[in-house]
Design goal:
Strand content: 5-15%
Structural class: alpha+beta
Number of helices: 4
Shape: flat
Largest sheet: 2 strands, antiparallel
Number of strands: 6
Distance between the termini: 29 Å
Strand order of the largest sheet: 1-2
Length: 139
Amino acid sequence: MAGEQSGPDPLRQGSRIRNPGGTKGGAGEFLIGLALLVAGGYLLLNSVVVVGSFWSLFGFSSFGLTLIPLFIGVTFLFFDAKSLVGWFLTGGGAIAIFVGILAQMHLFFKPESLFNVLLMLVLIAAGVGLIIRSLRPHS
């Protein structure tokens, strides 16, 4: 038929795709870039301290209040798994807890030397650059 290519697909070796992105790029570059990105991300996230503060509403502890709809919703769902009220209360309670935790969370960076900060940023930038480069066709 017109427009069909004959012969093996140059991007396939056996039954597996050879290179990332379906291009004739560098699988090695992709893997090295991914390793650099993971290492830099790990070092950056390892230098962050997360602290939660007291969750209050009108001066009273309100975490227990957000558990009430979740508790009632789970009770409804164990009685009847198709209960829309149960799913609504369970989902709403879970969202309220998640939003409340995020709203009261504070992030702080540990003191780091300039060398460590530069190392983290260079690893991340080099990893992203290699990943993007690996997706382009190579000659």
